[in-house]
Design a protein that fits this description.
The complex is a heterodimer of chains A (136) and B (90).
Chain A: H1 4-27, H2 35-53, H3 55-62, H4 69-82, H5 109-135
Helix pairs in contact in A: 1-2, 2-3, 2-5, 4-5
Chain B: H1 3-28, H2 32-56, H3 61-89
Classes of the chains: A mainly alpha (136), B mainly alpha (90).
């Protein structure tokens, strides 16, 4: 789309929306949010950029094929579910560090599960959107 | 009249009436562009309702949902505009 306002706004919207999606991802354990909503927001951020600048420019920014994000995310999910076996606890037990980290808050296996969901949702959203935008 | 009474007596009924009026336009709408604008307007009014409820119940997390909603509304309107433009070019 050749609109100067839209292009200028989308340059500033992309990093802001990615930051907000990561904020939602990290907040997700006790408050509304989580991997799915954060992933959707990141997908929408890339979609706005692709509307303004075209698909090729957005593919250059993402660099890797979004199809690779899904297996990586699923692997992280499975590893986070298998992790309690190492300390001989039942499968999918929530393991948490005692002290909260700086800026991130509490870190545990549930956070890694959320990160895996985030990657899967970003990958599938980008694939769906790029396929639809290609055919229009 | 206190603030919460003001919300319940004036603002929520106004938003409700405007939802009904815009929905009539959404059903009647002679052209596709009218329907797209009406849909955008419905989402904007619902963002107003979400904002009122977040003030009434003192929950700031509702505003995040309103922000996400407004983003998706903007995106869908831009996509529809792009689609209509492409269709007229053919």
């Amino acid at each position: 789309m050749k609109s100067l306002i839209f292009r200028t706004a989308s340059i500033y919207l992309l990093p802001l929306l990615l930051l907000f999606s990561i904020f939602i991802l990290l907040r997700g354990h006790y408050l509304p949010g989580g991997g799915f909503v954060g992933g959707l927001m990141a997908g929408v951020a890339f979609l706005i950029h692709s509307f303004a600048f075209g698909l090729k420019e957005t593919r250059n920014i993402i660099k890797i094929n979004p199809g690779f994000l899904m297996p990586i995310g699923l692997t992280i999910c499975v590893l986070a579910a298998l992790a309690p076996w190492i300390v001989s606890l039942p499968l999918m037990t929530g393991l948490w560090f005692e002290e909260p980290f700086k800026f991130v808050g509490m870190v545990g296996s549930a956070l890694f599960f959320d990160i895996g969901v985030y990657l899967v949702v970003v990958g599938s959203t980008l694939i769906i959107m790029f396929t639809i935008a290609d055919t229009v | 009249m206190s603030l919460s009474e003001f919300y319940y007596m004036i603002i929520i009924p106004m938003l409700g009436i405007s939802v009904i009026l815009v929905f009539i336009r959404f059903i009647k709408g002679p052209s596709l562009a009218d329907r797209v604008i009406a849909l955008d307007m419905l989402i904007l009014i619902s963002i107003g309702i979400i904002a009122v409820y977040s003030v009434v119940f003192n929950q700031s997390t509702f505003l995040d949902i309103a922000m996400l909603f407004s983003l998706i509304a903007f995106l869908s309107t831009a996509a529809y505009a792009y689609y209509i433009e492409q269709r007229q070019r053919k």
